[in-house]
Amino acid sequence: MSKNGAQNGISAPTFWEQYKRKPLGMVGLFIVLVYIFVAIFAPFLTPYNPKQILLADRIAAPVWFRSVVPQYNDAPSTVRTDLGPNEWTVSEATGGKLSSQEQDGKTITVIGFDPVFSGDVIAEGEADAFEDSEFADAYEKEPDMSVVELSYVVPYTYSPPKTFGLTFNYWIDASPDSKTELQFVIETPEGKEFNLWGKSYSGALGSQPARIDSRDLTLKQRLGLTIFDDPAPRIFSSKGDYRLVLTAKATSGEEPTRVCISDTVFYIPGMVHGVLGADHMGADLWAQLVYGTRISLSIGLSAAAISVAVGTAVGIICGYLGGVVDEFMMRVVDVLMAIPTLPILIILGAILGKSVWNIVLLISAFAWMGTARLVRSQTLSLRERVFVEAAKASGASDAYVMITHILPNVLPLVFAGMVLRIPSAILTEASLSFLGLGDPRVATWGRMLHNARGFGAFTTLAWWWLVPPGLAITFLSLAFVFIGNTVNEILNPRYRERS
Amino acid sequence: MALLEVRDLKMYYKTLRGHVKAVDSVSFDIERGEALGIAGESGCGKSSMANTVLRLLPSNGKIHGGSITLDGVEILKLDDETFRESIRWKKISMVFQGAMNALNPVHRIGDQIVEAILTHEDIPHAEAVERTEQLLDMVGINPKRFKEYPHEFSGGMKQRVVIAMALACNPDVIVADEPTTALDVMVQSQVLKAMEDLRKRLDLSMMLITHDLSVIAQTCDKIAIMYAGKIVEYGSVIDVYENPTHPYGMGLVKAFPNIKAERTRVRSLPGFPPNLLAPPEGCRFHPRCPLADRTCMEEEPRLIEIGSNSHKVACHKVDMLERGVDIWEQ
Amino acid sequence: MGAVRATDEERRVGHGEVILDVENLVKYFPLRRGFAQSLKGGPDLAVKAVDGVTFNVKKGELFGVVGESGCGKTTMGRTILRLLEPTDGKVVFEDTDVTALDPEEVKKLRRRMQIIFQDPYESMNPRLDVSRIIAEPLRIQGIVKNAVDARPYIEKALEDVEMTPPEEYLFRYPHELSGGQRQRIAVARALVLDPEFIVADEPVSMLDVSIRGEILNLMLNLCRERGVTFLYITHDLATARHICDRIAVMYLGKIVEKGPTDSLVKHPLHPYTRALIGAVFVPDPKKKGFGKVLSGEVPNPVNPPSGCRLHPRCPVCRDICKEVEPELVEAENNHMVACHFALG
């Protein structure tokens, strides 16, 4: 009867009809679709970029820990404020004023002090005249400084944080005879003041960074604490409104003094953060997981596609042409198959450098041999099929036969093989990344695991860092295995059940 | 009473798309020592019928009715275990197409036959060996080749071994399904000759299934022509070959080229057999039949006796055909 | 067309114009030897599939080649078409020496010489539909560039094989067709290039008896009406008897007898031919009885017997047969036989 017919050609609708009946295949397909959805809509699923750091304290817990784990009830979320000219409130201003200026695309806070016009003009001619007068004393004394005080209120409603920080850059435009003093103070709701930072300068000053970190020794000394004390819990010990006060004092010279401040960031890292917490750099783990889907899927698909394409081409050419080419390529395949893949990949990865595409190429380079053998053996039998001889009898060239007759007939085999190769590519990439050979610039699941291992997820029992990428890899691989097996069952009669 | 009586046998294969009515109300008799040939196109259900009689059906093949009596015993009612122990091999044995490839390549020919005897009969090993040597001799193989392996035998010789095996337990009926189809003409002739000699000597009954009408003409007493799961013509080979009366039987007999005849145009029957999932209404042959009319499309013809010698035909147009009109004249 | 149309009688006596001349054609398949065997040395072994075959086919003739499996008839058909490279010998098709052509010329030759295969289930790529199967030779030969150009050729080919209306079959896949229909498609594929010569390799042996006639008659019509020359390769002497003009009988890579069909079938001269005819069963229960057949089976073609290859099985074998290989000589009018005692 028509056994032959049934085994061979299978049209797309029939394929789908059969596929629909396999529950495991459908589960696999569903899971993969979910992953694809996540990969495509990654930017809508997380507000963060996986590379953004300092979003929270190192190894911050997920935010939902607050309602689940008692000791996280009041745990601080990240407080982070960029303080520009619009955020500051001027709480005192004598002889100076707050203004803003655009420079290099940044908005810079400028505190401008008036120049001492009268004094200068008078001093020029009359200083000597009044040398001995009572006024001279007045002149000898320090002139009164102009003061501008900027303040900003930070509401803080959590339990005491572990650390906090304040960073900004500043510079001073002034004439050499001027004097300037700058000071940063935090005022607690109780009215207590902590003088965090203060500097005074004469004349102009180039751009300087100020990095105030609660863990700094100098800060601890300045606040009169021992090195074993933590300033952060002391300062933010209660809930309420804290005031950040920046005071600038200046005596201007001939030129007006301008104190410029940019990139001012006040930062209390949260101990809870986002859906899945944060890593050792305070980067969002959920964002890494979600964006990692893109990388893992594209690495898996492209490595599988490349390796299968290479394997199919080699298999068809070797199987069809035979002879020396075949003999040589098959020995190459034997050698490559005998080499343990992972160590070689580690060495080559280290030599070639860490980039995602290098990894894809490396994985493909060591994954095509199985396909090549499978396709070759299939080709060996296909090339003896009568329809190939029929094409030759019409004058067909080898290339024509390979493309028109062999290729379409090995595709089902190859297709199932390709689906099954995706999880192994994903796993290989994950292993390489886990071993630290991944691309450091992209967040992959393997890299997440690598970081988790290297930066204390095990010691701090931060399972929310370890488990999600592990599960993501497992489920995606499993889904592809389900799909691959189902496709195999349908397309490749060896596996087909009798109905 | 005939040795093997099959009445109204129905066997359907269950598939995803419905029942395939491979054997549909088939009845025939085989007397002791008689050979019945069953002919038909591929897919007409002839092999399915052999498998039904031997109860060698795949899991989706089910007997939906009818009876098979062997020597007065209703064997359809036996349970599988009893059937396997007391009927198959012992009473009814079989030779299949390509059965020679079923020989185990790593065991000696003789041992395989001895094994077959010992599984069915409780006799000493030495006796089984002796009988095996006799059997080999009977099918025309030198008993000295007892210790050889299957690969040392040619295709025809292997088929003889398989026949010897089928005869190992002195069966009453032998079912041969295309026993020589894969063999060359000359070997086919040798094997069939050996089979015929044996059959005559042992007074065996045979059910020979083949598409080759010339084989049936040479080896059988009666013939049943099957079409789409049904017997459409049944009778002695002389009657059926001399005077084929069903349009299909007539077409088939005339389509068979005869080397001894003068050069003629080779006949054929236009069209192809129906899909047994949904066979045509009425007479199943009507879409291919040049005589078909309304009755044929609506009413299923019964197998009725015409003339003498139990020559039976299932056709509404019997009267027209009995006059010897050649309806396939092109 | 008129020029090639000769009467049966003309063909039978061999006055037709020769279209294919096969001279001493040899095809050996070398056996791959194991490492141990190659160390031992000794002569290279080969399967002597075709071992010096000489015959010719006349224009518009249906020439039959009959033999049991393994006699080399299929290999010979393939070698004539250069689907296999001959080991030795010459094949001249009209004025072209087929054996001396380079690959580009062989490709051109394919338009003139085509083949129909045995298994209609195997000879078509199951993933192509009928229109693409038939269009394939046209595309390969660069006669058409696209499906639209190919359409008239395909429809004509389908009409030629009596599959009408063509539209009904164009987009079906092989598995949707019956065996007979598939074989018609295979014939259509061979016809679409309008060849002068077609090798039909067991075109009906996989088909049911009831439809063999369709294909055989189709071939006969093409031969008689369009003047296509056929080389009909078969194991079935009964069908060859009814459609062929001349028949050659092969045994172990050699032609043992050839001649006009009637003469060969009615008065076989070679013991092998006689046995072959005797082995064919007659579908007539009144003429019961097994003909005299040869004992044993065909020997291994790696080591064919010395002298006459039939001698170990031959009922009339004498000493000379074991040593001297008989030549193919004309015994009667156009009836050639290779046997030392054929005439006796």
Summary, kept brief:
The complex is a heterotrimer of chains A (499), B (330) and C (344). Helices cover 48% and strands 20% of the residues of chain A.
Describe the structure.
- The complex is a heterotrimer of chains A (499), B (330) and C (344).
- By secondary structure, chain A is an alpha+beta fold.
- Chain A has helices at 3-7, 12-20, 23-40, 42-45, 65-68, 117-126, 134-140, 217-222, 231-235, 285-321, 323-338, 341-352, 356-365, 369-382, 386-393, 398-434, 445-454, 463-491, and strands spanning 79-83, 89-94, 96-103, 106-113, 146-156, 165-173, 179-187, 193-202, 205-213, 240-251, 258-268.
- In chain A, strands 1, 3, 4, 6, 9 and 11 form a six-stranded antiparallel sheet that branches.
- Chain B has a domain at 221-330.
- Chain C folds into two domains: 1-31 and 46-112 and 195-290, 3-Layer(aba) Sandwich (Rossmann fold), CATH 3.40.50.300; 124-193, no CATH class.
- Chain C is 33% helix and 22% strand.
- With 344 residues, chain C is of the alpha/beta class.
- The chains are: A alpha+beta (499), B alpha/beta (330), C alpha/beta (344).
- The interface between B and C is large, with 45 and 49 residues.
Task: Describe the secondary-structure layout.
The complex is a heterotrimer of chains A (499), B (330) and C (344).
Chain A: H1 3-7, H2 12-20, H3 23-40, H4 42-45, H5 65-68, E1 79-83, E2 89-94, E3 96-103, E4 106-113, H6 117-126, H7 134-140, E5 146-156, E6 165-173, E7 179-187, E8 193-202, E9 205-213, H8 217-222, H9 231-235, E10 240-251, E11 258-268, H10 285-321, H11 323-338, H12 341-352, H13 356-365, H14 369-382, H15 386-393, H16 398-434, H17 445-454, H18 463-491
Antiparallel strand pairs in A: 1-11, 2-5, 3-4, 4-11, 5-10, 6-9, 6-11, 7-8, 7-10
Helix pairs in contact in A: 3-10, 3-18, 10-11, 10-13, 10-14, 10-16, 10-18, 11-14, 12-13, 13-16, 14-16, 15-16, 16-17, 16-18, 17-18
Chain B: E1 4-15, E2 18-30, E3 35-39, H1 46-53, E4 61-70, E5 73-74, H2 80-87, E6 92-96, H3 109-120, H4 125-138, H5 155-166, E7 173-177, H6 185-202, E8 205-209, H7 213-219, E9 222-227, E10 230-236, H8 237-242, H9 247-255, H10 294-298, E11 304-306, E12 311-313, H11 318-322
Parallel strand pairs in B: 3-8, 3-9, 6-7, 7-8
Antiparallel strand pairs in B: 1-2, 1-4, 4-5, 9-10, 10-12, 11-12
Helix pairs in contact in B: 3-4, 4-5, 5-6
Chain C: H1 8-13, E1 18-30, H2 35-40, E2 46-58, E3 62-66, H3 73-80, E4 88-93, E5 96-97, H4 103-109, E6 113-116, H5 130-140, H6 147-160, H7 167-170, H8 179-191, E7 197-201, H9 209-226, E8 229-234, H10 237-243, E9 246-251, E10 254-260, H11 261-266, H12 271-279, H13 319-323, E11 329-332, E12 335-337
Parallel strand pairs in C: 3-8, 3-9, 6-7, 7-8
Antiparallel strand pairs in C: 1-2, 1-4, 4-5, 9-10, 10-12, 11-12
Helix pairs in contact in C: 5-6, 5-8, 6-8
